[in-house]
Specification:
seven-stranded mixed β-sheet; six-stranded mixed β-sheet; 12 helices; 29 strands
Length: 495
């Protein structure tokens, strides 16, 4: 069995595992199959599930004193899910496969509207590039061996139609030519202006350097021939792709429409403005998720704050025409965590219900109807929500947008990184250049608790730390963030 076959089998098993969950959520025999300690760990907490079960000591720099009051992992016993949480890598695979599950729509977008979209089809050249032999330099087009005679006042310019006198260039003659102008038939080479010597009295041109046939001529089709594939389907349209498409003759591009995303912020304790007070806290996810999702290629509506209102959540889900709905908070088993009950009432299919990852293990992925939108339920704690975003929303959106899967890469981690006893950890890291010939590496950042954003604000990636942790010098998988810090952070503040 190949590696790809094994991965496909794992995804099939995962989908089979969760496919009938709606019908078996309350069956005692299903509950008894889960280890009680795993159930408690995966469903701990009320709104976010990460408040107590995910606190760890901050990662330490070499030589930095340890936290004198580390918080141990807590394992209370709230109500358990009817099926085990999925391993982190398998949950990502399920999300990616869900995104690739349907046919992609195709729209033709004018070049000025195509930036950031994904090409739905390969981009093939509509013409040779260049479409004619052209001069690469300002200078003289010459034919045959020199010296060459020339006609005073005659020049070939870019964008000016070919003159009758320049239809062909007889041996022993030369003509002034500008960069980008078509070269006459029978041109041997172009001599740069700085390499030419003009004897105006005799009307002769000579050169200070040897002439090589074809020098400083861009031949027709040098870059591509008509019909050549320039970039494959799935390519993100960048400014450079727009320029290439225009050069190749395109006025519009076949693109995949950006997935449409609605963001629903749950929680009565959240403030939209001002300082926290009287048990109320600022909503950090509403301002963050829209720009983050746009950076992943989605069209995002403004966040809607629904509070802890099951009926409002149900109405928002049933009235949405988005491709993906992202909710924040309410994914665990507390008294006001309404996401699971509402999904059950709507007959939604749970594809992922909990992931063995810290922070963010109560995240979920559901399909509201066979042809309806997907829902990614994020925990309410900010870094836990980022974990859910990168674990489930990012691979799902990549599939919906037609983007190819990104190849994972690994990097050395500089410093020991503690791990969870059973689950994967996602730890904010920053890339560092190697010193004195050493390898580039990543350094873990402090302030990586589930409710913290200070670490991720300085990060340019997340390290995927397996259960048990890793020692300094170990290679770990890195999840890139869709941007890099614009400011060189001061190490003492974050690392």
């Amino acid at each position: 069995m190949t590696r790809d076959d094994a991965e496909e089998l794992a995804v099939e098993q995962a989908l089979a595992l969760v496919g009938g969950r709606n019908q078996t959520r309350d069956r005692p025999d299903d509950q008894s199959r889960d280890r009680p300690d795993d159930q408690a760990r995966d469903r701990v907490g009320e709104r976010t599930g990460d408040q107590t079960g995910d606190q760890m000591p901050h990662d330490q720099n070499p030589g930095e004193p340890a936290d004198p009051h580390p918080t141990p992992y807590a394992t209370p016993s709230p109500p358990a899910s009817s099926a085990p949480a999925l391993p982190w890598d398998r949950a990502r695979a399920v999300a990616a496969r869900a995104g690739r599950g349907g046919p992609l729509a195709v729209v033709r977008l004018p070049l000025d509207r195509a930036l950031g979209h994904v090409l739905a089809e390969p981009l093939a050249a509509l013409t040779d590039l260049p479409s004619f032999d052209t001069s690469a330099m300002d200078g003289w087009a010459v034919a045959g061996p020199g010296p060459w005679t020339y006609e005073e006042g005659v020049s070939l310019l870019a964008g000016v139609g070919e003159s009758p006198a320049a239809a062909r260039l007889p041996d022993g003659t030369a003509v002034r030519i500008a960069t980008g102008a078509p070269t006459p038939a029978d041109t041997t080479a172009v001599i740069r202006s700085e390499h030419a010597h003009v004897d105006e009295a005799r009307g002769l041109l000579s050169t200070r350097r040897p002439v090589v046939t074809g020098q400083d001529i861009r031949p027709r089709g040098q870059e591509c021939r008509s019909g050549d594939q320039l970039v494959p389907a799935g390519t993100v349209v960048t400014p450079a792709v727009l320029g290439l498409a225009a050069a190749a003759g395109y006025d519009a591009l076949p693109a995949v429409p950006r997935p449409r995303v609605d963001v629903l912020v749950l929680g009565d304790e959240l403030l939209a403005a001002g300082l926290p007070h009287d048990g109320l806290i600022r909503d950090a996810l509403g301002p963050m998720l829209g720009p983050w999702l746009r950076a992943l290629g989605a069209e995002v509506s403004g966040p809607r704050r629904l509070g802890d209102d099951a009926e409002a959540l149900r109405e928002a889900l049933t009235s949405s025409d988005a491709d993906l709905i992202v909710t924040t908070g309410g994914t665990a088993s507390g008294p006001v965590d309404h996401v699971h009950p509402v999904l059950t009432a709507l007959g939604a299919e749970l594809l992922v219900d909990g992931v063995t990852v810290r922070p963010g293990h109560p995240m979920l992925l559901a399909r509201l109807a066979p042809d309806g939108p997907y829902l990614v339920g994020l925990p309410g704690n900010p870094l836990a929500a980022v974990s859910g975003l990168l674990t489930l929303a990012e691979p799902l959106l990549a599939g919906l947008a037609g983007r190819p899967a990104q190849d994972a890469y690994r990097a050395l981690v500089h410093a020991d990184v503690p791990g969870h006893p059973h689950d994967t950890r996602l730890v904010p890291v920053v890339h560092r250049a190697g010193r004195a010939g050493g390898r580039d590496h990543v350094a873990p950042l402090r302030y990586n608790g589930p409710a913290m954003l200070r670490g991720i604000a300085a990060a340019d990636g997340l390290a995927v730390v397996p259960a048990g942790g890793v020692r300094s010098g170990t290679e770990v998988e890195i999840l890139d963030l869709p941007w890099a810090p614009a400011t060189p952070w001061t190490e003492g503040c974050f690392t």
